[in-house]
Amino acid sequence: MSSTTPTPTTNGGGAGAGAPPKKHQYDPVFTDSVIAATGPKASPRMRQVMASLIRHVHDFARENDITVAEWMQGVEMLNWAGQMSNDRRNETQLLCDVIGLESLVDEITSKLLVGADADYETTKSAILGPFFRKDTPPTENDASIIKNLPPDAEVAYMHGVVSDAATGTPLAGVTVDVWQCSTNGLYEQQDPEQTEFNLRGKFTTDENGYYGLYCIRPVPYPVPYDGPAGKLLQLLDRHPYRPAHIHIMAGNDKYTPLVTQIFDRKTQYLENDSVFAVKDDLVVDFKPITGHSKASLELEYNIRLAAMKPRA
Amino acid sequence: MSSTTPTPTTNGGGAGAGAPPKKHQYDPVFTDSVIAATGPKASPRMRQVMASLIRHVHDFARENDITVAEWMQGVEMLNWAGQMSNDRRNETQLLCDVIGLESLVDEITSKLLVGADADYETTKSAILGPFFRKDTPPTENDASIIKNLPPDAEVAYMHGVVSDAATGTPLAGVTVDVWQCSTNGLYEQQDPEQTEFNLRGKFTTDENGYYGLYCIRPVPYPVPYDGPAGKLLQLLDRHPYRPAHIHIMAGNDKYTPLVTQIFDRKTQYLENDSVFAVKDDLVVDFKPITGHSKASLELEYNIRLAAMKPRA
């Protein structure tokens, strides 16, 4: 959008040389006065973050001449998002997802956790999304997470080794949470037809760092489309689909939990994920296997974790 | 906040000259890729506004290294705001108010409505706030809007002339809506002890442009403090009070509706309104009057409206 390059001025675009259009002559000290209202007992982090947020929001309004009516449309969309959200659904999170914000703060967080001076690579992270459940019960290695097998599903043997990203040492006792949707595109908590905890498992690596399970080959699905995030996607002329993926969370008390998603290299929407979560390192291959009684596909996925930094 | 000056770069601060800290080396094409996902059928306005919003939100996140945990605190605050909002309360609007956004879009809108080339001054606008009611019944001129008179109230005779800002001609048939809170700081819809439409009136100017009514001298009051806007004010170490004011909305089918507030020159909080709505032109004097049977104070307030521009 070459016509909307942001400027860092407080007074909107156009001020300065020559005679700027009168409509950009908004009160030049207003933003500073709002920021200056912050009291002495605000925390340094709160002071920094809110000053920056206020400046960006005000610059956004001035640069685009946002009217009261347009602002109120935004207010109503956010109220709608809050009113749609509950313990099974987070529509404000989804609004952030469709503008790439969760993916961006995920990138920021994972780089901060590993540290600026690390000379090794951990497995890349991806967004948690709204469908994780903390209360998934533990499962034995090599068990199946499939409680309801849809007729159109392909079963995959997924396995790998979890290791220390810096040393390569396999790690025992690491929890590996795995969750995915069924072939109808719904996670079990969205779908009354699925048994509770269907397609979810919480595994623990053995002494060789091994984890293993049976799951299904994932399918693309649309993010919920009946709320403000769906409305925003329509207004932006965008589709709501996510490429086929499996969610993973891995960590323990010594290793920073990794939250990620792995994507089927053959899936549609790999190049245009509606929530911008795909990274090259997270694209995986489901390989045909024969002579295996429980699965027709194999997926090997090894995970490299960063040890937690000692607290300063 | 000298340490948080925004930069217009896509790659966060510090990229470019020398060796930037690794933690700022976030994906330099990510924001452009999110903006580029907008489809060809999005309206030009939507395309412009959302591209700018996405760029500002992403720059904000990168410049401040916003973590997933911090972002989720913001998401939860917005969900809370939506869940608290209903037809009597708009907490997302109030969140915007305490960061000055409603006051800013009000300034932008009023300047756009009058036009960049106007050589006259209209009465300044101020924010609508959440307490206006569209269904206030019409009232005869010189009637009282006081249905419940608190013992600590001072009664004022408020009157003035509405005129065309460009020509000075008095305007007949202009609707003048007036609303204010009682001396306990509550508007009638917030307070079960007040009669419906207490301290609200909808007047119409006579052939001389005159409107007149009896109201009370306004008092300062805190904005609602039990939700996310109150929480944000606490985190910013700020008070929730608004200076004493009376709301006015004036207009008709030929004159752009003016939304404003007038502030008592003697009120507390004139210099630090919690929602940043005070403008010098809107500060008024309540003058003692004697020998008047219904009021001890007089407030003269004349209003200058802009004629609607013919549609292009």
UniProtKB/TrEMBL annotation, chains A, B:
What cofactor does this chain's UniProt record say it requires? Fe(3+)
Respond yes or no to whether keyword Iron is given for this record: yes
| InterPro entries found in the cross-reference section | 1_2-HQD/HQD, Catechol_dOase_N, Intradiol_dOase_C, Intradiol_dOase_core, Intradiol_RC_Dioxygenase
The Catechol dioxygenase N-terminal domain extends over 44-111
Q: Which Gene3D superfamilies match?
A: Aromatic compound dioxygenase
Q: Name one Pfam family in it.
A: Dioxygenase_N
Q: Where is the composition biased (Low complexity)?
A: 1-10
Domain (Intradiol ring-cleavage dioxygenases): give its ranges.
128-306
What keywords does the record list, in alphabetical order? Dioxygenase, Iron, Metal-binding, Oxidoreductase
**GO biological processes:** catechol-containing compound metabolic process
Q: Give the originating organism.
A: Coniella lustricola
**Highest taxon in the source lineage:** Eukaryota
What Gene Ontology terms describe what this protein does at the molecular function level? catechol 1,2-dioxygenase activity; ferric iron binding
Taxonomy of origin reads: Eukaryota, Fungi, Dikarya, Ascomycota, Pezizomycotina
Fetch the SUPFAM superfamilies from UniProt: Aromatic compound dioxygenase
Protein name in UniProt? Hydroxyquinol 1,2-dioxygenase
For whether the record's keyword set contains Nucleotide-binding, the answer is no
Q: Which family does it belong to?
A: Belongs to the intradiol ring-cleavage dioxygenase family.
